[in-house]
Amino acid sequence: THNLHLANSATRDAQGHFYALAYYFNGFRDPHIDVNPTAELPAPAWPGFVAASREGGAVVTMRDEGDPDAPPLGAQILSCDGQTLASLAEGRLFPYVLNASLALDRRRAVTRLFLDRSIPNAPGPASCRISVNGEEREIALRWRALPEPADAYWSAYTSASSGPAAEWGVSEPAPGVFWIGVPTFSSGEDTAPRLAALVEAISARAVEMRNARAIVIDVRGNGGGNSMWADRIAEAVFGRAVARRAAGASSTRSAIDWRASNENIAYWETWMSDVAAAEFGPDAVRQIQGVARGLRSRLGADPPIWRQGSSNPSPSGGLTMRRPRGPSPIAARVYLLSNGTCGSSCLNFADTVLFVPGVQLIGSATSGDGPYMEVRDVTLPSGLATVTLPQKV
User: Fold this and answer.
1) Of 43, 52, 325, 379, which is the most buried if we count CB atoms within 10 A?
2) CB-based burial of residue 101 (10 Å sphere; 0-12 exposed, 13-18 middle, 19+ buried)?
3) CA nearest 47: which of 106, 130, 134, 171?
């Protein structure tokens, strides 16, 4: 709170207000605590190129073709403003956005350094040292508005920042090699039908896939969503018995502390009628009814906390060290393909999948998770920002 007060004391405009909040919320280093502006902030700017992280530096992956001074494609960016890119990110980005402890965010930060979003006291670099065909030189960066239309820019930015997301569906790119694309587990009008279709497509060929050469479960771009969909897909791939045994093996005595409030209860009652009944059926409705009853039982209590689960939880940590060894329960080799985005319910999915003996994680590490979960969005009284508010720990 003291740091928030210091950051907020210099606030004079909309971006100052927003980044004071961003400084505070990013300090939790938790993917389920976030803030987004509703007030219009200054338009983003770029220096005429997009860069992707490569071996401690960066490589230009897109350039302003109308600017002869923009570094060519493939040019290496060695340093900027006399600092390494990692050092610049540490001072100018990580206090406000991203998480330096995550490999993906360290890569994302390199791309983000060359997108100016008007963070107070953290301007974009003024000059950079680059290498082109082995020859080094210093260049001045000329910041300008994004190209119009900006679709090509944002596509290049996303690709440079975290790479492409998985494509929906089941395919067989080589004989006996099955590819399952799961870009999200999010519920919703657009995604729920696609997830349901994916479960059906996997189930229709599940026996064939389990006895084939290989299965690749592609979760690139998947940042989580609803764990009920994650469980259904795991059961479709491996069969209910294998998936549930793996989920149980990865579990320990756990406890969940929910914050009891009228607003949280109202959220779950709405979710129960709008989502749970439509997408998951009576079992999900009963599960949510149990949560709502637990929250009501602690309204007005001191503290207003309802504990679900064990009163004596196991120590946390060490999950990856407990992964099982031994023969796989299915004939096919199974790979989980990650580009670093996999967090939240996707990380729960990874816990289950990687506790099936023989499954290998490929690509890169997953994302990381924090203790706060089950979020809802709340617009602040000022109307200037919306916060993502967790309901349980």
Assistant:
1) 52
2) exposed
3) 130
Decide if 37 contacts 18 (C-beta within 8 A).
yes
pLDDT (tens digit, 9 = 90+) per residue, 40-60? 889 999 999 999 998 778 999
Mean pLDDT over 261-266 rounds to 95
pLDDT at residue 10, rounded to an integer: 57
Q: What is the mean pLDDT of the chain?
A: 90
Amino acid present at 75: A
∠ CA 185-191-194, nearest 5°, is: 95
Confidence of residue 6 (pLDDT cuts 50, 70, 90): very low
CB burial of residue 32 (10 Å; 0-12, 13-18, 19+): buried
Distance CA 30, CA 221 (A): 18
Cα–Cα dist 292/296, whole Å: 6
Q: For residue range 157-210, what is the model confidence (pLDDT) as tens digits?
A: 999 998 889 999 999 999 999 999 999 999 888 999 999 999 999 999 999 999
Rounded CA-CA distance 116/44 in Å is 6
The token pair that represents 38 in the structure block = 């509703």
- CB-CB contact of 35 with 41 (8 Å): no
Please enumerate in sequence order all residues whose Cβ is within 8 A of that of 87, keeping only pairs 6 or more positions apart, or say none. Answer: none
Q: Is 149 left (phi over 0), alpha (psi -120 to 50) or beta?
A: beta
**Cα dihedral 140→144→147→148 (10° resolution):** -170
Cβ-contact 83, 75 below 8 angstroms: no
Is 321 a residue whose pLDDT tops 80? no
Contacts 24+ apart (CB under 8 A), 311-318: 311/255, 312/253, 313/252, 313/253, 313/254, 313/255, 314/252, 314/253, 314/254
Over residues 355-388, the pLDDT tens digits come to 999 999 999 889 887 889 899 999 999 899 999 9
| CB atoms closer than 10 angstroms to residue 249 | 16
